[in-house]
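Let us begin with a simple case.
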Amino acid sequence: MKKLKSKSLKTIKKFTLYPLLLCVLMLLSLLAVSAPFIGNAVSVAGMFMSDKQVDYSKAYDNIFVPTDKDSETVSAEDVEFPGIGKQFGELSVSGTNVDAKLFFGDGKVPLRNGVGIYAGSFIPGYGRTILVAGHNNTFFNGLKNVSKGDVVKISTSYGNYKYTVTGTKLTTDEDKSAYDLNSKKENLILYTCYPFDSIGLTNKRFFVYAEKTSGPTITGLYE
């Protein structure tokens, strides 16, 4: 009788407990590998499915005050240079529905509320490269309709600027030749992830290039 019970126990372990234990271990391994992807998916779903709209309006400072000043130059002493994460202007593109708040910096808060200038580039009027980032499925989604000759308008507290689109480029996120931060000429580059309606980061980038056509030059920067 004892031998029979012992054999039955071994049979149960062999065909029930061991396979069950193996399944649990495989499931735990699968969860460990896929945890990052599941986390991202949950975060993205939360953005679209939450019935509570997150308010980021109190998370940044706004130093933008519209001006009608129309001059060729503005003294650096009269310019309030923006700190990281501050809104200091507005940006729009003719022929598209791009119309957004402009921030200095391209972190989470700026890109949730508008578009942001990469802090390693420059602000309008500086005479150098202005590199502006925006999300492809929100504020820069309208760049899919941009055409050569469209006008990008940037309004700041110290002056209003216009840049004419000269072309576009589709490339990878590792293509450093897509922009030149050492250029001595003022030029505007807008960029976003591609495809336009994709959710989350992709390895492709869509660039829009524009040349300055009007707006004051900031003087006294290097004195």
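The second case is a distinct protein. As before, the sequence precedes its structure tokens.
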Amino acid sequence: MMKLRRKLSGYLDDWRTFPGDAALGYRNEGLRGVRDALVTRTVHRVVRTGGGVIFAQRLDAAVDVAPPAGVRVAEVTDADWPALATLVSRRDLARFRRLAAAGRVCLVAWRETRPIGYAWVADRIGSDVSLCPLPLPAHAAYLWDLYVLPSERSSGIGSALARARLAVARAHGFREGWRLIARANLASLRTLKKSGSDGEIRTVGEIRFVKLFSRLHARFIPCE
């Protein structure tokens, strides 16, 4: 009964926050933002498919990349959450706060006092981080969910965020950073290529998944 109540509460909260999240999505991403706000509350509640290629990057060879002029990258603090409401939906903001409380590290790119992008680092895989049970080794951190506002893209901010989270992972004692990138996500593949040389990055394997309601079917295919 308690589980059912939590689910119903989540559904109700989804629709209470939809108008504001759709409006924010339109301001930041246009019609795509509205669609994403709707799809996460409808289609993805029932079925979701996906996957991608898992890449591992050495951290000992990673070099810092300064962000563009007028931009700084820093770990999120409790005082930053109100400002992030201009960048992420209320639904995602609540999720971000839960992730941070669980020890996940959020890096935010700022142009003066305005947040314009973010990226995440985790020391372990959990259901809050990834739907897929990735075989993350103890010496690797997981790097995921790098985002930059469309109006700020192609200016080096994504590369600066990517390098900053490599530095965070290295500072926490990890030797590699792992990330999962869909084959169709050309922007993330370009950012990966910019963040290191071919010798620094290796392909671990591929993962595919289907989630139907609460049942997850995932398959990991390692590289030979």
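The domain at 42-222 is CATH 3.40.630.30 (Aminopeptidase). Residues 2-29 form the longest helix (28 residues).
Keep these points in mind for the review questions at the end of the chapter.
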